[in-house]
Amino acid sequence: MVTTAEAIDYKGKKVEFPLEYAAENEIPDEELHEHLAKPSTERTKRLKARCRWKHASAGEFVEKGVCAGIERMRLLTEAHKASEGKPEVMRRALGLANILNKCTVVLQDDEFIIGYHAEDPNMFPLYPELAYMAVADYLITDYAPQPVEEAREIMDYWVPYSMQSKCEHYFDPEDLQRMYQVSTMEAPGFATGYNSIVPPYETVLEDGLLKRIELAEANIQMAKDKMAEMPWDATKGLAWLDKIDNWEAMILVDKAVIAWARRHARLCKIVAENFETDPKRKEELLEIADINQRVPAEPCKGLKDAFQAKWYTYLLCHAIDRYASGMAHKEDTLLWPYYQNSVIDKSFQPMTHADVVEMVEMERLKVSEHGAGKSRAYREIFPGSNDLFIISLGGTLPDGSDACNDMTDAILEATRNIRTTEPSLMFRYSKKGRSKTKELVFGCIRDGLGYPSIKHDEIGVQQMKEYGKFSTEGKGATDEEAHNWVNVLCMSPGIHGRRKTQKTRSEGGGSIFPAKIMEVTLNDGYDWSYADMQLGPKTGNAEDFNTFEKLWEAFKVQYQYAASLVIRCKDTLRYFEGKFLQMPFVSSIDDGCMELGRDACELSEQPNGWHNPITTIVAANSLVAIKKLIYDEKKYTMKQLMDALKANWDGFEEMRKDFKNAPKWGNDDEYADAIIKDFYEDIIGGEMRKITNYSGGPVLPVGQAVGLYMEIGSRTGPTPDGRYGGEAADDGGISPYMGTDTKGPTAVLRSVSRVQKNQKANLLNQRLSLPIMRSQHGFNVWHAYMDTWHDLNIDHVQFNVVSTAEMKAAQKEPEKHQDLIVRVAGFSARFVDIPTYGQNTIIARNEQEFGAEDYEFIDADL
Amino acid sequence: MQFFKIPETDLDFEAGKGDCIRERRDQKGRFWLSKPVFETDPGCEEMRPKP
């Protein structure tokens, strides 16, 4: 059965909502999304059919045969042993060079963009130099690298050298034990190895690596000339030593990268001349060989060059040199000059717009095959996906004009056609953005991809300017550069371009979990429901808080403890990354590192300290319920509440109803919103802002829940918002708790818009009515909603447009619903690969219907 | 598996070094792997250099 939206009376007329595509009247609700994929060519159809997905579900890889490779860790270890005594940055360069010189390179049938990061397309690499715990996890699974005995030896070798060992020493074991519970705080990055980066792709595409080598060589010569100046001045002259090491390391790795790319070229040529029988593919392989011979050594001249050089840079920065999640770049801006050359001017690698769409579809499938050697915990928190891959589009250029172009449109068209969970897209929404492109953005959202997620363009620009003020190097983003921002991972913005980009995750992502912090705040810092241990400072028991303000202050202390510890771990890791985990390839492609002779991990020109309170709304709604029922109305005592919570509300059903029915976030409720606004601004943002991180800037909250809202929910006992122990927490930084935003979509916007101070990067999940979005009015409604959202100065929003009927059908017959995609948090996932616990959290989200009042509020043109 | 000598003009040329090329096929399709080896190494079954 097909559901259509009911007609309404609006502005004195009756408005009907027929489906935009009449053919959909024949498609039952339960199977709609299986009809939406339309790969644009036979080739991308084939590539999708044979895609080697690396999705995980409940921490297990979904497809058989996916496993860790041993080659990278073996070659890195071999180089490390052989380079003892050399400068550390050179040891890192020799490690990467050894991998690139000796690794297996891979070429698959049908692909045009080539290159992989392991010795077999079903494998992914591991990183023992980061965190031995993350490797140990694999050795006891079916995904262990083989031979497993050798892998264990390698892991043991790295224990004393790993980031984990170097950092742990500086922390109280009790604090670390608390972090390893992953309930009030995320485990330290030096134990998980989780990381992200914004590679300066621009220099690779614009300059080519041969030019970067020339620059480094000239800098070394300049340094040597300076050192030879007389009279000798050690206070200045000795500083050149480290710089020379850095430049020499850059040269070494860039040469290795060029040789590695050319090995791919040679493989294509060999296959073309010795194995391939199809004359068309033979010709294509020779073309690919030519491209890989030239790039990334030389500047890119056409769009095919650019896709290939970008892919190599991605592999190096995110998988081969070290692991980094994400795919941060401004793809439309980056590729636009090459689109102009190839499609408009046809001056090099001439092609049509349709050819570009196919290239993007092929790139998306490459990403879908990309496996990440993450720890089990991190596989669990991205259920139904490989990893976080987020590309940014749209927004404004440095001169303030619209940045959307035909490359933006090609990316959106391909995304909608090929229908993969990854990479996700983020669209920078500006009112200057052209309507044609916004319609394509809407097309992806309406089709239920869950992306692009939308960020407010002007807020992002402002954030870059604000952070730039704190640059310890005095080189923060200029007003023009502030327009060059992308999502670093799923939510936090950061600069893209030739310099000042974020190089490592010390700048962001440390997670703190207010829901569990609320629980321990009520219990003198003790966790009675999960770990049975002290998780924070002793701040008193709930019964001792005779005023709401005392509870507020106790929470503040617990939160500050967690936030400071998490960020101290991040910064300690950053300190050691600069000394032992240098990234000479990244340094070589960053203009700042190249100019200054400094390593990418060590140098920070633009602070970008976004950290991550998740499950804030469970805590916030709990505070509202406590204030109303205990302190204001005095209907219950704190002791009664604590008794009920300890019993998981069992025997306290009426009392639970009262707490459950207390005002909730997202309903434009003045009582709740006033408390929650203060909670966000004074504690979540205010306390965090007191912290100064490695880069010298303040730390700000970026609520990006990923799948952690499920993990933390399962580890959090019953809470005063009426939630049972173990139930999932709220699914976004500022999203209403699932099913509790009952006053319509614009009430949510009004609530969220009240929070303005000390933060502007909180994730807002909304589930919109599928029949309205797929109706002839869909785009107009969405566009009016988005303009209202923009006017309310809200930073983020993302949508699920998927029916409950289809999700329930997929739960019953998962094999028939492989193309059903949903937005979980900062990522989209294949619905059937999400564990049932997580699936139910998506189903439970309120599907927002628009009423006449909502249409009036957004001034929809119906 | 087949062994192809690395041309003298290439950056990674070394005497006796070549690419060991393996063709693979599994349920997802066909692919090729290339790994650098020396003529003296075991591993690439047919170490007869190709032109």
Would you kindly provide a written description of the structure presented here, covering whatever features stand out?
The complex is a heterodimer of chains A (862) and B (51). Chain A has 862 residues and is α/β, with parallel strands linked by helices. Chain A has a domain at 507-759. In chain A, 47% of the residues lie in helices and 9% in strands. Chain A has 36 helices and 22 strands. Chain A has a 6-stranded mixed β-sheet with strand order 8-9-10-19-18-22. In chain A, α12 runs antiparallel to α13 and α25 (616-632) crosses α28 (670-684). Chain A starts with a strand and ends with a helix. The model of chain A has no long low-confidence stretch (mean pLDDT 96). Chain B is mainly β and 51 residues long. Chain B has one domain. Helix content of chain B is 0%, strand content 47%. Chain B has no helices and 3 strands. In chain B, strands 1-2-3 form a 3-stranded antiparallel β-sheet, with no helix packed on it. The model of chain B has no long low-confidence stretch (mean pLDDT 86). At the A-B interface, β6 and α12 of A face β2 and β3 of B. β6 of chain A pairs antiparallel with β3 of chain B.
Record keyword descriptors for this entry:
A: 862 residues, alpha/beta, six-stranded mixed sheet, 22 strands, 47% helix, 9% strand, globular, B: 51 residues, mainly beta, three-stranded antiparallel sheet, elongated, BssC (chain B), BssC_sf (chain B)
